């Protein structure tokens, strides 16, 4: 079922909220983030979208999904910049949040306590199946967590792991289908132990 904004409205409008969209690569995190941001724009709310400067796979500024859906964003080096750049904003979106520093949860809390709706998209696990960056802490403090799934490239089941095809072992390796494929638990661990 699609996330519905109507299901959760703060009674005290001086407070906002935190939403996390997480899952494996190709699971539709960016598409879902774009969908929610576009609905906020249709509602004529001021929105700002941020991504980490290091994620330059498709475009210097735009956020672009694997289906070429896109929306403009502001690249930032550190989560503290998001606070400085969000003063007159009602809705803040953050993509590829797994790449941000450990201050991101505090930043998001500060924004939400200023009345801002914060929507975060990011990988919950790295290629080893381990929690990734600030995402687990964000999931803990969020009002809403949406876990989306890709389709396992081996068996067609819902996939929640990002299997790395490339031989590189370092945690950070930007890439797409040439380097990763989504897999279900069985197909991920059967070939990865
Ligand atoms: N194995 C797969 N499972 C699901 N979607 C896939 C797969 N491979 C490619 N896609 C495409 O990826 C799109 C999702 O892209 P995107 O929102 O950028 O995902 P994410 O941000 O989670 O990596 C899907 O709509 C689909 O067209
Ligand atoms: C699993 C994993 C992924 N990455 C990189 C690969 C991509 O550049 C992004 C994820 O992009 P998506 O929008 O979710 O498809 O993260 C990485 O650096 N390390 C990993 O373990
Ligand atoms: Zn599978």
TrEMBL record:
E.C. number: 2.7.1.21
Residues binding substrate, per UniProt: 180
GO biological process: DNA biosynthetic process; thymidine metabolic process
Residues at which Zn(2+) binds: 152, 155, 184, 187
Listed PROSITE patterns: TK_CELLULAR_TYPE
Main location: cytoplasm
Enzyme class (EC, first level): transferase
Active site: 96 (proton acceptor)
GO molecular function: ATP binding; thymidine kinase activity; zinc ion binding
Subunit structure: Homotetramer.
UniProt-listed PANTHER family: THYMIDINE KINASE (PTHR11441), THYMIDINE KINASE, CYTOSOLIC (PTHR11441:SF0)
Protein name per the record: Thymidine kinase
Native organism: Parapedobacter koreensis
The organism's taxonomic lineage, starting at the top: Bacteria, Pseudomonadati, Bacteroidota, Sphingobacteriia, Sphingobacteriales
């Amino acid at each position: 079922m699609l996330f519905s904004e109507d299901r959760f409205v703060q009674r005290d409008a001086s407070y906002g909220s935190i939403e996390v969209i997480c899952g494996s690569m190709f699971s539709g995190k960016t598409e879902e983030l774009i969908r929610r941001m576009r609905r906020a724009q249709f509602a004529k709310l001021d929105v700002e979208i941020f991504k980490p400067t290091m994620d330059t796979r498709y475009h210097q500024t735009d956020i672009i999904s694997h289906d070429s859906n896109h929306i403009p964003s502001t690249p930032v080096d550190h989560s503290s910049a998001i606070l400085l750049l969000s003063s007159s904003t009602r809705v803040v979106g953050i993509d590829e949040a797994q790449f941000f520093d450990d201050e991101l949860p505090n930043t998001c809390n500060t924004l939400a306590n200023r009345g801002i709706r914060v929507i975060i998209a990011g990988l919950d696990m790295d290629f080893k199946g381990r929690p990734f960056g600030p995402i687990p802490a964000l999931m803990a403090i969020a009002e809403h967590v949406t876990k989306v799934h890709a389709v396992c490239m081996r068996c067609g089941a819902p996939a929640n792991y990002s299997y790395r095809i490339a031989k590189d072992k370092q945690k950070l390796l930007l890439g797409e289908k040439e380097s990763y494929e989504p897999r279900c638990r069985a197909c991920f661990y059967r070939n990865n132990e």
